[in-house]
Amino acid sequence: MSTLTIKPAGSCRFDEISLGEIMLRLDPGDTRIKNARSFTVWEGGGEYNVARGLRKCFGHQTAVVTALPENDIGHLVEDFVMQGGVDTSLIKWVPFDGIGAATRVGLNFTERGFGLRGALGVSDRGHSAASQLKPGDIDWEYVFGTLGARWFHTGGIYAALSETTPLVLEEAMAAARKHGTIISYDLNYRPSLWKAFGGQEACRKVNRRLAKYVDVMIGNEEDYTACLGLAVEGVDANLSALPIDGFKRMIERALKEFPNFKVAATTLRTVKSASVNDWSAICWYDGSFHQAMEMKDLWIYDRVGGGDSFASGLIYGLLTFNDAQKAVNYGCAHGALAMTTPGDTSMASKAEVEKVVAGGSARVVR
């Protein structure tokens, strides 16, 4: 069995660095995208959300590597990132062409679900600055060798954005591994993103190539089957909830194909409606499975970002304690709290997370 060898706190400039696209989320509130006359604007992105959660909720020093156009919309995204406390010094600024034909900020229109109506996301992110990054654009030796990071997080959303983003990912992951940085990867399968780049066949080819660099693999049952081709007999990837024993068999198969995985984790969600879910999580580490508390009938305000907040809580637990049970508990609690507030990013405090981990109630705090 193999455990994580994590660099000690204070040994690097950053505790964690994320690589991915940051979009503007346009939120119609209680109405629908197609009927809205106004939108609230947030920032969000699967990989970035993890860095923000680790910084804003858990107090770790984090940074994001991405690209933005040099215009006021790009600087709006920068302002959001700065409000979240994430370091912006590694952002690559790209000259703006005047109309966004070559580079722009991606948009993500997202409406919250309610009852039997599920949440809906509509992306408008073609030609975004982050999707146009190519090998050689970022000095990864400087990032991981000179500055240093204890942890590097990225994922399958960024891998799906263009023909070049998987190459940038591989370049970054190779540099992180060279310098002893732990690498986590959230598979985050999105059929709509892969549609333009070869569909599921390309998705599997890319993700299986990148998986060989990963120490901590995160994903649900659909992610493991769609992205890595790890279907297991008796496990239906279209189930709304994956039986725990099915996930265990899936991970056991994954470990045979990717012995470099030191941790594998997933959320366990039963969707009773868009407003009420059962929620838990499980992770494999050092030969054993560890399950978080089960939350029955968890009320959901905005489910988008719940998985990213699970990932940041899990990473916090591993960075801080290197303890799988604590890590999956923190991840489960943080993901649950993130789904009680609007927007992609967590608004929870560490004290609130620790209260949930300890079994605290939702009684009013005065």
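The above is record 1. Record 2 follows with the same two-line structure.
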Amino acid sequence: MADDYPAGGVARLADEMRRIIERLAVVRPSAAELQQAAEAAAAFADRLGQLPERKRSWEVSEAGLLPRDFVAFSPVSGRSNAIAPPVVLTVVQDPAGTHIEGEVSFGPAYEGPPGHVHGGLIAAMFDELLGFAQQGPGFTATLTIRYLRPTPLNRLLKLRASVERIDGRKRTIRGSCELDGTVLAEAEGLFIAPRSGDDFLARLGQGG
């Protein structure tokens, strides 16, 4: 990243804020404790509000925007984004080709059905996972999720995705989410690559 700031420090701050979000989902403090915490949070938010902002909007754009670039501020996998679980993704190369493997554990802040992950978070996870599997820029056209079993909270989930078919600018990607060898959900996505010569990164940087 071109901007001169301590990326490791940002990630650590996001980790601590993520802890706050997780605890806020489960604690039941008194009214006095809530008021004190809210005042401290407001003071910290005001302090952050005085700091300089990023200069490039595409730093927080859709995952997979740059080949092999896991965007630090992604709302799904960004280590530096406090609302991200975060999903951890890795590029794997083997004799069969290149694919994506990953893992994630959703805490109580992502709860939908009691004790289980909200289905919308599962869909977002797959959008991120399949998007990275393109190994190049592309935008989601369709995303189909098959929820086979409820996904429990606080369990380490294993992810996998790979390209199934390429037809011109169209890329069909498949992925899965497993727990202890049992498939909990599957997904298929159709992604569209930008037209040849379309410098959309430059346009995004200009806000256009």
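The beta strands are 88-94, 97-104, 139-147, 157-167, 170-179, 182-192.
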